[in-house]
Amino acid sequence: MRAFIFPGQGSQAVGMGVALAEASKAARDVFQEVDEALGQHLSRLMAEGPAEELILTENAQPAIMANAIATLRASGLDLESKADFVAGHSLGEYSALCAAGTFDLATTARLLKRRGRAMQAAVPVGVGAMAALLGADLELAEAVAEEAAQGQVCTVANDNDPSQVVISGHKAAVERALDIAKAKGAKRAILLPVSAPFHCPLMRPAADAMAPALAEAAMEPPAVSLYANVTAAPVDNPDDIRELLVEQVTFMVRWRESVEAMAAAGVTHFVEFGGKVLSPMVKRIAPDARTTSVATPEDIDALVGEI
């Protein structure tokens, strides 16, 4: 069995999509449709920068999705016949749902633009922070966050793999967590260069903004089941997916558990479209699984020849 997976924020870079667009009309069509949906020349920003504009959450989120969908469509692969499940990390969940036909491309782009703006606006710059705890599992990270909170918000945001957990919350609490984590045995604890504290209760205003946007969005059942970030379980019903996408803004991304659950369901091959971020995590979670990262025209040719 095979799962198609899609990366989240942090996988953006100036120059993304250029080689794809040169090699594939299908990719060019994706970038053009996203540009038109947003009324913005996002593909030019992706290709030429500046980097400080591309990394803005409201630009990075639709850009990463557009690059992932362009990669998939350039492959010409039929998702329903080649994949048994889809999953995505944070915003990658929207890419996964677009790939599976739950949202059309224009709707996905507009939702992510709104999501990015809402997440950025939820917490003033400088109030929140995120940190990666390396060499730490979920249990250790939860203990660190609880001790560091001291009346503020500090929670686990991403349970990425057995050795990498991300925490999020008020800046002072997250900074306290750095020393606490090292004292409790984490190998490293580092602040992340992000502009807002994602996937924690401070994002409640963003979740409230996404609820009406998702309520208005046209949705279809996905062609194959989505393993949801919030539950680490498969979901097909559009109403359930809508609820989970709202919850996802403030809840932990249960990526480790999602991969474990897909592997337990029989998935032996994980194919990452539009990046090379998730595949190493998958190997740390499910060492026996096969992973393929698809980010370039050459990667696409190799994948098509293989499956």
At a glance:
This protein has 307 residues and is an alpha/beta fold. The protein has helices spanning 18-23, 25-38, 42-48, 51-54, 57-75, 79-82, 92-99, 105-122, 138-149, 171-183, 204-216, 238-248, 255-264, 278-285, 297-306; strands spanning 2-6, 85-88, 128-134, 154-161, 164-170, 188-191, 225-227, 234-235, 269-273, 290-294. The chain has 2 domains: 2-122 and 202-306, Malonyl-Coenzyme A Acyl Carrier Protein, domain 2 (3-Layer(aba) Sandwich), CATH 3.40.366.10; 128-194, Malonyl-CoA ACP transacylase, ACP-binding (Alpha-Beta Plaits, 2-Layer Sandwich).
Tell me the layout of helices and strands:
Elements: E1 2-6, H1 18-23, H2 25-38, H3 42-48, H4 51-54, H5 57-75, H6 79-82, E2 85-88, H7 92-99, H8 105-122, E3 128-134, H9 138-149, E4 154-161, E5 164-170, H10 171-183, E6 188-191, H11 204-216, E7 225-227, E8 234-235, H12 238-248, H13 255-264, E9 269-273, H14 278-285, E10 290-294, H15 297-306
Parallel strand pairs: 1-2, 1-9, 2-7, 9-10
Antiparallel strand pairs: 3-5, 3-6, 4-5, 7-8
Helix pairs in contact: 2-5, 2-8, 5-7, 5-8, 5-15, 8-11, 9-10, 11-12
Structure explained in plain terms:
The chain has 307 residues and is α/β, with parallel strands linked by helices. It has two domains: 2-122 and 202-306, Malonyl-Coenzyme A Acyl Carrier Protein, domain 2; 128-194, Alpha-Beta Plaits, CATH 3.30.70.250. It has 15 helices and ten strands. It has helices spanning 18-23, 25-38, 42-48, 51-54, 57-75, 79-82, 92-99, 105-122, 138-149, 171-183, 204-216, 238-248, 255-264, 278-285, 297-306, and strands at residues 2-6, 85-88, 128-134, 154-161, 164-170, 188-191, 225-227, 234-235, 269-273, 290-294. The strands form two sheets. It has a six-stranded mixed sheet with strand order 8-7-2-1-9-10, sandwiched between helices. Strands 4-5-3-6 form a four-stranded antiparallel sheet. Strand 4 (154-161) and strand 5 (164-170) form a beta hairpin. Helix 2 (25-38) packs antiparallel against helix 5, helix 5 runs parallel beside helix 7 and helix 5 crosses helix 15. The longest helix is centred in the N-terminal third of the chain and has 19 residues, at 57-75. The chain starts with a strand and ends with a helix. The model has no long low-confidence stretch (mean pLDDT 96).
